Each structure stands twice: as structure tokens, then as C-alpha cells.
Design the sequence.
């Protein structure tokens, strides 16, 4: 079983919809990252969380350490949000484990 | 502006060739990582390094080696390239317990 599970695997939304991507993990972590990967491969770090909630523009990330669960929310989604979103956990030995990614397509 | 730079975006190599993938970061980070990314499998750690000349095996080190002679540079070496090493390779760097920064990726095709 993968140490980091993301859902859904694929997500198609209409422009303006509220989107949620979920991440569950089974190992002890020091931090959780949400990453965005656009076509062509480049990866951008969106958030690093160790507790609570962070907000950046239309993006919100939350983490519940007790439940080992994190969510990434996108409000008022836009076609330019179309990308693969990856959940990654930094384990206590400092290496990272990744979910398989969620491919988001936002249609105009 | 922080930067992790990988030497090539696309590479095509022949089976049996020795392949070098280079990664350079300009942030004075102590930690550097090499991952490969395959459809349905996500990113998997090949090797990481937490200091110059130090290296640790990740989940899939077989067929690979690494070199870190200088803090800013972390090289991934495919000793004898095989077709099952066709993949996207991503380098990352970080300070301990902080955000990781990724390179743009190298898409390697072994024919």
C-alpha cells in the first residue's frame, strides 16, 4: 500500500466550481507539501504545512495531523488551474514520499 | 529568485550508454534529491544527499549512482542505460525541514 494516497486520480470541473483534492498518509511526518505540476514537467511548491491551514489567493490547504489527512481546495476554479496536483510528505528522516497525483482539468 | 537547474530538458540515449544528469542549485541547500516520475507511480526517490560527498539510497537505487563533489551540484549517473530507465527525472533541493524546490525535469528516452 502506498504511504501517500490521493483522491481523486482525475477530476474535471467547470470554470468557477469549488474543487477539493484529498491526501491521506500512513507515516510519521514533519511536514506535508502540496505541489503543482504543469505539462512539460516543471513542479512548483504551493504549500508546506505542519499544522492547521494556509491560504494563498484562491488556494487553501488544510491538514489534520491526528487523522493523517490533508485537503487542497481551489475556489472559483479557472482553466489555468489545470495541472497535476501532488501531495508529498516529508518523513521524520527528512526524505519525501509522494502521492500519485490528481490530474485536474478545468473547462471554460 | 530561487533556482534548481537541470542540464537538459530532453535526452535520447542508446541502451548501454553511460548517462549523466546534472542538477545545480543556487540556494546553498544542504539537501538534494533525485526522483523519477512514471505514469501511475508518482515520484519515486532514487538517491538523496544531505551534504557534500554524502549520499543515501532511496527506494529505487538499482542501476543508478550519484555524485556530490560540491554543495551546489548533484549528479545522477546511469551506469549502463536500459529501456526501463526511460522516464522523467526530477531533481530537488531543500534546507532541512523546509520547502523543497524542484528543477524543470529531464525527459530521458533510452532506445
Sequence:
Amino acid at each position: 500500500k502506498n504511504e501517500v494516497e490521493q483522491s481523486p486520480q482525475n477530476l474535471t470541473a467547470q470554470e468557477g466550481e469549488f474543487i477539493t483534492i484529498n491526501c491521506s498518509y500512513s507515516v510519521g511526518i514533519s511536514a506535508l507539501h502540496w505541489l503543482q505540476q504543469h505539462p512539460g514537467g516543471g513542479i512548483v511548491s504551493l504549500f508546506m504545512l505542519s499544522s492547521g491551514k494556509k491560504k494563498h489567493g484562491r488556494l487553501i490547504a488544510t491538514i489534520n495531523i491526528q487523522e493523517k489527512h490533508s485537503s487542497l481546495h481551489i475556489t472559483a476554479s479557472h482553466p489555468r488551474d489545470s495541472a497535476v496536483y501532488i501531495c508529498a510528505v516529508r518523513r521524520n528522516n527528512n526524505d519525501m514520499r509522494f502521492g500519485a497525483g490528481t490530474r485536474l482539468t478545468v473547462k471554460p | 529568485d530561487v533556482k534548481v537547474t537541470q542540464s537538459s530538458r530532453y535526452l535520447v540515449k542508446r541502451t548501454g550508454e553511460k548517462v549523466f544528469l546534472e542538477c545545480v542549485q543556487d540556494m546553498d541547500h544542504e539537501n538534494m534529491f533525485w526522483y523519477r516520475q512514471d505514469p501511475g507511480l508518482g515520484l519515486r526517490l532514487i538517491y538523496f544527499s544531505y551534504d557534500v560527498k554524502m549520499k543515501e539510497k532511496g527506494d529505487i537505487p538499482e542501476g543508478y549512482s550519484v555524485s556530490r563533489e560540491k554543495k551546489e551540484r548533484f549528479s545522477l549517473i546511469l551506469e549502463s542505460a536500459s529501456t526501463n530507465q526511460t522516464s522523467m527525472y526530477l531533481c530537488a533541493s531543500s534546507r532541512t525541514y523546509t520547502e523543497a524546490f524542484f528543477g524543470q525535469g529531464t525527459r530521458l528516452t533510452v532506445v
User: Anything to note?
Assistant: Chain A touches chain B at residues 2, 4, 30-31, 33, 35, 40-45, 48, 86, 88, 90, 94-101 (CB under 8 Å). Chain A has a mean pLDDT of 91. DSSP finds no helices and eleven strands in chain A.
